[in-house]
């Protein structure tokens, strides 16, 4: 089994076909956060914008006495730097950005009709790998990172981890 995995890795890594990123990509990511993704590629950098849901899926630490709605709205903008690898079939990337979230907050968990909309914001950081298919303008990515909330809770950390597909054009 190890030999098969090594052989597949070598074939994938040293394939002659080149599939590099185009100038734009649109896609979908699943995990934390889940959402739609737009990316503008430069020579060695990219601007990445994600609109989707925020749920603290990976971390359930409460920091207020009430309760938050399980899903809210999220907007994240990141500036990324990337390094092409394996004949431009894969890129490794990392960067920093800003995330804004909005979720309903219920001060009294027994009365669900009384709530406020809670806005939170802070810096985010992202790192990942993107794999480009040889004959198609599609890429598969795995990324992780985190979000450090500054408002309303200073230094509240929420990890991010997701996978997704992008169409490059």
Cross-sheet strand order for the largest sheet: 1-2-3-5-6-7-8-9
Counted beta strands: 9
Order of helices and strands: HEEEEEEEEE
Unreliable segments (pLDDT under 50, ≥5 consecutive)? 4-20
Radius of gyration: 19 Å
Largest sheet: 8 strands, antiparallel, barrel
Number of helices: 1
Helix content: under 10%
Spatial gap, N to C terminus: 37 Å
Would you kindly provide a written description of the structure presented here, covering whatever features stand out?
- By secondary structure, the protein is mainly beta.
- It has one helix and nine strands; from the N terminus they run αβββββββββ.
- It is elongated and about 55 Å long.
- The two termini are 37 Å apart.
The gist of it:
This protein is mainly β. The protein has one helix at residues 2-13, and strands at 24-32, 34-41, 45-54, 67-68, 72-85, 90-106, 116-132, 138-149, 156-168. The chain starts with a helix and ends with a strand.
